[in-house]
Design goal:
28% of the residues lie in helices and 18% in strands. The chain is of the alpha/beta class. A hairpin with a 5-residue loop joins strand 7 (221-223) and strand 8 (229-231). The structure holds guanosine-5'-triphosphate and magnesium ion. Guanosine-5'-triphosphate binds at residues 26, 28-34, 89, 91-92, 205, 207-208, 273-275, 292, 296. Residues 286-306 are annotated as: Disordered.
Length: 324
């Protein structure tokens, strides 16, 4: 499935244009590419009524998400082919040669209002989202500074499965990056020196069997009324995973909650999986729902992303221009 806006129909045509400028941060291999690749599919997934014979009737108006520039459309064609057709991760070695990844992805979010007269209020029904994957701040410091100065929100991917050491370094780098941003953006910080953009923290790969087992043992996870795995309290789950005796293999994770709370006021937390949980006949069997092979190379079936759209929807948009 290819998602491009295709025609002028996908572009804002009138009224104010709203935009979310989101910086995306994560350690190497934390799942950034797959997260971005799954944004349009996550919108489709959310609108499918699943489980309990669901028809989708109870769901709010659905979002459709389109890539709006050539680079994003090319990226989505490549990643859709990998994830949706071949059930493999797009960043995997030996994949297609078309690996050109923009560091900036442009999307249009659009939904049809249920009540036709509400069409007038275009703000509620369409916005642009630009997701900028932050490069390594140790080598591309200026680019990181510019992106943070310009963003309205920051998504932090926390991958508690990382055993490579990259997560350890990433916590230190995040701390340095936010401290520098607070100095640079000082005129815009609040009286306590907290940063002027909205943070969302996503615990990634919650489908990973170690994390899922932890979630089940701690009774964090349950099946919701749509038959999806839901983590009841993502903040508490995040904090548990960061604890020194928790399942996260790198000790610096214990510092992560403090680092984030020092730099931000309200923080939103999400339990995220780009791959999601395996279903059969539209339902999840909580005892057998692994959707990724134990080596993390392939998916067992189609991805069922969750916690991917929500952090984006939860962020505020800024008014950028008037359409034609
Ligand atoms: N279980 C599980 N594994 C995932 C998920 N998303 C990504 N992975 C694993 O993490 C690996 C890296 O994912 P990417 O999306 O390429 O991560 P990245 O942060 O873009 O990685 P680099 O750009 O290579 O640093 C994949 O090959 C998978 O093995 C997920 O939702 N669940
Ligand atoms: Mg990547």
């Amino acid at each position: 499935m290819t998602r491009s806006s295709g025609s002028r129909d996908g572009e804002p045509t009138g009224g104010a244009v709203l935009e979310k400028r989101i910086a995306l941060w994560g350690a190497p291999e934390s799942g950034r590419t797959t997260f971005v690749a799954m944004v349009p599919e996550a919108a489709e997934e959310r609108s499918r009524g699943l489980g309990h014979g669901g028809t989708g009737r109870d769901h709010p108006p659905r979002w459709k998400v389109f890539g709006t520039d050539d680079a994003t459309q090319r990226f989505l064609r490549h990643t859709d082919h990998a994830l949706l057709s071949e059930h493999r991760f797009p960043g995997e070695p030996g994949g297609s040669v078309d690996t050109a990844e923009p560091t900036r992805y442009r999307f249009l979010f659009r939904r049809d209002p249920r009540l036709v007269p509400l069409h007038r209020f275009t703000d509620h029904f369409r916005f642009a989202a630009t997701i900028t994957e932050l490069p390594d701040p140790s080598t591309r410091r200026d680019e990181v500074k510019r992106a943070l100065a310009d963003c309205t929100g920051l998504i932090v991917l926390f991958d508690p499965t990382d055993a490579s050491g990259a997560g350890e370094d990433a916590v230190r780098a995040l701390d340095r990056m936010l401290t520098e941003a607070a100095a640079d953006l000082q005129p815009r910080t609040d009286p306590r020196g907290r940063l002027p953009f909205e943070p969302a923290v996503c615990v990634t790969k919650i489908d990973d069997m170690t994390l899922y087992r932890e979630a089940r043992l701690g009774a964090w996870a349950e099946l919701d009324r749509d038959g999806r795995v839901r983590v009841r309290d993502p903040r508490a789950y995040f904090r548990r995973l960061c604890e020194r005796d928790g399942p996260c293999p790198y000790p610096a994770a214990a510092e992560l909650p403090g680092i984030l709370e020092r730099h931000f006021g309200r923080i939103r937390y999400y339990a995220t999986s780009a791959a999601g949980f395996r279903r059969s006949a539209g339902r999840i069997d909580p005892e057998s729902c692994r959707n990724v092979d134990p080596h993390g190379n392939r998916l067992d079936g189609p991805p069922h992303p969750q916690g991917v759209l929500e952090p984006i929807l939860g962020m505020r948009a800024v008014r950028i221009a008037k359409g034609g």
